[in-house]
Amino acid sequence: MSVNGRLVAGAAALITTAATAGLCYMTAIGHSLFSVQLGVVVFASSMLTGGWMLGRKYDRLKEESTIDCLTNVYNRRFIEVNFNKLLKQAERKRKKMTIILLDVNDFKEVNDRFGHLQGDKALALIAETLRNCSERGEIAGRWGGDEFILICPYADDKGIERITKRIHEQLLSVSRRSGLRLSVSVGSASFPEHGGNLAQLTLAADTRMYADKYVRKVQETEPAALQA
User: Fold this and answer.
1) What confidence category does residue 48 fall into, taking pLDDT thresholds of 50, 70 and 90?
2) Would you put residue 149 in left (φ > 0), alpha (ψ -120 to 50) or beta?
3) Is the peptide bond before 192 cis (omega within 30 degrees of 0)?
4) Closest CA to 81 of 3, 155, 141
5) Is 212 exposed, middle or buried (0-12, 13-18, 19+ CB in 10 A)?
6) pLDDT at residue 149 above 50?
7) Helical (H) or strand (E) element with 87
8) CA separation (Å) from 81 to 71, 76, 87, 198?
9) Rounded to an integer, what distance in angstroms lies between the CA atom of residue 197 and that of residue 204?
10) Are residues 186 and 209 in contact, defined by beta-carbon separation less than 8 angstroms?
């Protein structure tokens, strides 16, 4: 249970203690001591259990508000709320902050050919790949639909190239195992070179991502044109 969850459970326990004391006083007037003790034990037990469950429910609701339920990576809201904190740390330490936007290639084809359940599986597999490639503190999130975002604190150009290469290699391996053709187009942008906030950085990364997608499309069509 998280710290806040324990605080919620603790507050419920304090309420339980106060309520139990009041119950002792009120019931002791007209009942035997044994009956009062038995009633208090049962009452306190149920209230403490309820307090623990309330703390767990708080943790679950908090997790649901930050984690994308399909892919189990952070959702867009979490990224948007917390990115400025990371940006301020990078600015204070005079370090780069790089984001990578990733768009699933031919995702509509996966849905049309295999169905939406397989499409959901494809998104989950890609998210898992991003988590597996996040070995140096990178933060993976679902940006929306079939787009993902990777926040790379303090990563230099070589570090971004290395993680991008690792993502492509692992997706190729996952594709062979799953029977799904999984690949992504990638675009990156760094603070402060390409922008001073999340909106500017995602716009710059998005432009580069679609340029990468265009190049991939051209490379795929050239062999077919030569064969014709």
Assistant:
1) low
2) beta
3) yes
4) 141
5) buried
6) yes
7) helix 76-92
8) 19, 9, 12, 10
9) 11
10) yes
Distances (CA, A) of 157 to 85, 100, 186: 22, 12, 14
For residue 195, the 8-state DSSP code is: -
Q: Which two tokens stand for residue 194?
A: 């390409």
Token pair, residue 168, equals 């492509």
Q: For residue 202, what are its two tokens?
A: 């995602």
Other Cβ atoms within 10 Å of 183 Cβ, number: 16
Would you call 95 helix, strand, or coil by DSSP?
Answer: coil
Name the pTM for this structure: 0.72
- What is the enclosing helix (H) or strand (E) of 79? helix 76-92
- Give residue for tokens 């990224």: 79
Among the listed residues 156, 164, 171, 108, the one whose alpha carbon sits nearest the alpha carbon of residue 134: 164
pLDDT at 62 over 50: no
